[in-house]
Amino acid sequence: MNEPTIHIGRKISKIRELRGMKQEALAAELGISQQAISKIEQSAEVEDSALEKIAGVLGVTAEAIKTFSEEAMVNYFNTFNDTSSGFNYHCTFNPIDKIVELYNEKVVLLERLLQAEKEKNDMLKQK
Q1: Separation of alpha carbons 53 and 98, rounded Å
Q2: How high is the pLDDT of residue 100?
Q3: Residue 78 in contact with residue 84, Cβ under 8 Å?
Q4: 9 and 41 in contact (C-beta within 8 Å)?
Q5: For the residues 119-124, what does the mean pLDDT come to?
Q6: How far apart are CA 82 and CA 99, in angstroms?
Q7: Domain residue extents for the chain
Q8: What is the mean pLDDT of the chain?
Q9: Residue 77: its pLDDT value, please?
Q10: Cα 64 to Cα 104: distance, rounded to the nearest angstrom
Q11: Which InterPro entries does its entry note (predicted)?
Q12: How far apart are CA 119 and CA 114, in angstroms?
């Protein structure tokens, strides 16, 4: 039985899109034209040296590009909605309360600083 053809160009395209990167941006990072990126993404095979450079810009390894599959990505993202593992990532505090608390702490510190400056000025006036 023949192994299914791995179309590296399509994988590069999908990873680039998942990263929210346009062909122009990838091209600029690599110092080549957008047309060259288009041609690469249409190619079933890509030279290893070019693949390494592309992978570096995309923030992945060349091996990650070679083994990338949309099915694996769907499974990966679906696990974020799976709460059966017992891990629920819920905030344990009210962010607004935390902001108010930090603001109040800053106000107290500023009041102390202002008071210290007033005392310093009073001492200088007395001299």
Answers
A1: 44
A2: 84
A3: no
A4: yes
A5: 91
A6: 31
A7: 8-81, 91-127
A8: 82
A9: 53
A10: 48
A11: Cro/C1-type_HTH (IPR001387), Lambda_DNA-bd_dom_sf (IPR010982)
A12: 9
Cβ(11)–Cβ(40) below 8 Å = no
- Reading the block at residue 123, the tokens are 């001492």
Lowest mean pLDDT among 2-16, 69-83, 102-116: 69-83
The DSSP 8-state label assigned to residue 22 in this structure reads -
The maximal CA–CA distance of the chain, rounded, in angstroms, is 98
Rounded-to-integer distance, Cα 7 and Cα 68, Å:
10
pLDDT exceeds cutoff 50 at 72: yes
DSSP state letters, 42-101 = H-S---HHHHHHHHHHHTS-HHHHHH--HHHHHHHHHGGG--TTS-----SS-HHHHHHH
The CATH number of 8-81 is: 1.10.260.40
pLDDT at residue 127, rounded to an integer: 76
For the chain, what's the residue count? 127
Residues 6+ apart with CB under 8 A from 89: none
Closest CA to 30 of 44, 10, 16: 16
